[in-house]
Write a structure and sequence with these properties.
Elements (H helix, E strand, L loop, with lengths): L3 H33 L7 H12 L7 E2 L2 E2 L9 H15 L1 H4 L13 H15 L38 H5 L6 E2 L2 E2 L9 H4 L2 H9 L1 H4 L12 H11 L8
Antiparallel strand pairs: 1-2, 3-4
Helix pairs in contact: 2-5, 3-5, 8-10
Length: 240
């Protein structure tokens, strides 16, 4: 049992000690801010993109750095998740990227404004936010058996083996190994139903093959198309 003087001393010393710890942590936090906020990356393009982001009220639908609305996708790490080409195409014409699906307003941004917004989103994605928000689980398999690459009830395709352009572009609408969007058909068996040449022609312009296709002509380079066709032509698992 502490005496009054001991309790008073315990309180004073404890308060002083934890106050010093708090001040030390505060100083350390402020010292980390310049590097964690990627302040050296604040180019004029990024600043213009930030102003345009605010002026267009993007946070009325999207969340960024934990703030905003939850109607549309979170944007803090969207550059890592989707890449420059996808974001650029989306900002140019949202409806063409998701025909009959996406409800994003077309702001009719010019090329400079789109470039500024992309620069801003890239800069945001390079900030050190202590792991926030968690990255999509793209480096793990889609089912418990980590060594299998067969498709079926134990369907697994290791996403670390997928081309980066596939993870950025294709999974927005298509699924593979149980991961991805549901707008377009699953691609687990695409290599059994379509050969490589067909896939190349389809990726170059789906509307030339199927005029009523909901898939847009994606902003893919020849290298992207070659890489995707080689990958997709190997997906020959039989779904159950």
């Amino acid at each position: 049992m502490l005496t009054k003087s001991q309790a008073k001393a315990f309180f004073i010393i404890g308060t002083a000690l934890f106050s010093l710890i708090f001040v030390g942590l505060t100083v350390d936090t402020f010292q980390r801010i310049p590097s964690q906020t990627n302040s050296e990356g604040l180019t004029p393009e990024v600043v213009r993109g930030k102003h345009l982001f605010d002026k267009s009220n993007c946070m009325g639908c999207h969340t960024i750095m934990g703030e905003g609305a939850y109607y549309a996708p979170e944007l803090t790490k969207v550059f890592d998740r989707r890449g420059e080409a996808f974001i650029t195409a989306m900002l140019k014409d949202p409806e063409s990227m998701y025909p009959g699906q996406r409800k994003m307003t077309n702001y009719h941004f010019n090329d400079q404004q789109i470039s500024d917004l992309v620069a801003f989103l890239k800069w945001i994605g390079q900030m050190d936010l202590n792991g926030f928000p968690p990255k999509p689980d793209l480096n793990k398999t889609a089912a418990p058996n980590a060594d299998s690459t067969t498709v079926g009830e134990a369907a697994i395709v290791k996403t670390m083996d997928r081309p980066n352009v596939f993870n950025q572009m294709c999974v927005a609408c298509h699924s593979l190994g149980g991961q991805g969007g549901q707008i377009g058909p699953a691609l687990d068996n695409i290599g059994s139903t379509r050969d490589k040449d067909y896939i190349i022609r389809w990726l170059k312009n789906p509307l030339e093959i199927k005029p009523d296709s909901k898939m847009p002509k994606l902003p893919l380079s020849d290298e992207d198309i070659t890489e995707l066709a080689a990958f997709l032509s190997t997906q020959k698992g039989s779904s159950k």
